[in-house]
Amino acid sequence: MNKLIVDEIRPVTLVGGGILAEDDLKLALSLAPILLAADGGAGHALAQGHVPSAVIGDFDSISPQVFRQIPADRLFHMPEQDSTDFDKAMRSIRAPLILAVGFLGGRVDHQLAVLNALVQDQGTPCILLGAHEVIFHIPPRIGLPLQAGDTVSLFPLRPVTAGSQGLEWPIKGLNFIPGGQIGTSNRATGPVELTTEGPGLLAMVPRRHFEAVMQAFLAMV
């Protein structure tokens, strides 16, 4: 375990060094103005005129030019190679919620590593913003103000059982398991409630519900 680096009472934005759509960072900062970066995400931040409050990682993806523009007291070097920069950042942040951009798209192995870290017990919940969807680790219970016809995909990274209200194909009684039962391309019939009996189940809903998912998490704090 590493030490706590960021301790905030408000949601924070975490930017990574992966693919970042033009408005991703702007959207996240409009909802969570405190900006943090995981390693190479500092370059994305500076390119859009922002200096992160903290940069966390092994620093193997930060160019010397970017490195020189970050104040020394905002650089938190974690050289160990047993975890990803996303994992390092997640373990180092305490906040009501993390909005993460720049972690989806690009190399599949990087994305899988991010999703693997997402289902670990890090304490602070996190929502990943992608090009078409938002992804989050389902807590024991969450209500989502979705609309009829919205795609709701559920994907397990651990064996887990779950329940639902408001899905076209209810999931009660299903045993989700990697390499077995999954739940992609379900559909909402209206507002959705999801429950889980343990960790390990990811949800994916349309990108336009980013703020609504954020508010659903904050309502549980």
Describe this structure in words.
The chain has 221 residues and is α/β, with parallel strands linked by helices. Strands 2, 3, 4, 5, 7, 8, 9, 10, 11, 12, 13, 14 and 15 form a 13-stranded mixed sheet that branches. The protein has a two-stranded parallel ribbon with strand order 1-6. Strand 8 and strand 9 form a beta hairpin.
Summarize the structure.
The chain has helices at 24-31, 41-47, 64-68, 85-92, 108-118, 210-218; strands at residues 6-7, 12-15, 34-38, 54-57, 75-77, 93-94, 98-101, 126-129, 133-137, 141-144, 151-156, 160-167, 175-176, 183-196, 201-206. With 221 residues, the chain is an alpha/beta fold.
Unreliable parts: none
Categorize the overall geometry.
Answer: globular
The secondary-structure class comes to alpha/beta
Helix content: 10-25%
Helix tally equals: 6
Q: List the secondary-structure elements in sequence, H or E.
A: EEHEHEHEHEEHEEEEEEEEH
Oligomeric state of the chains present here? single chain
| Strand composition percent | 25-35%
What profile does the largest beta sheet have? 13 strands, mixed
- The first-to-last residue Cα distance is 24 Å
Protein topology:
Blueprint: E1 6-7, E2 12-15, H1 24-31, E3 34-38, H2 41-47, E4 54-57, H3 64-68, E5 75-77, H4 85-92, E6 93-94, E7 98-101, H5 108-118, E8 126-129, E9 133-137, E10 141-144, E11 151-156, E12 160-167, E13 175-176, E14 183-196, E15 201-206, H6 210-218
Parallel strand pairs: 1-6, 2-3, 2-7, 3-4, 4-5, 7-8
Antiparallel strand pairs: 8-9, 9-15, 10-14, 11-14, 11-15, 12-13, 12-14
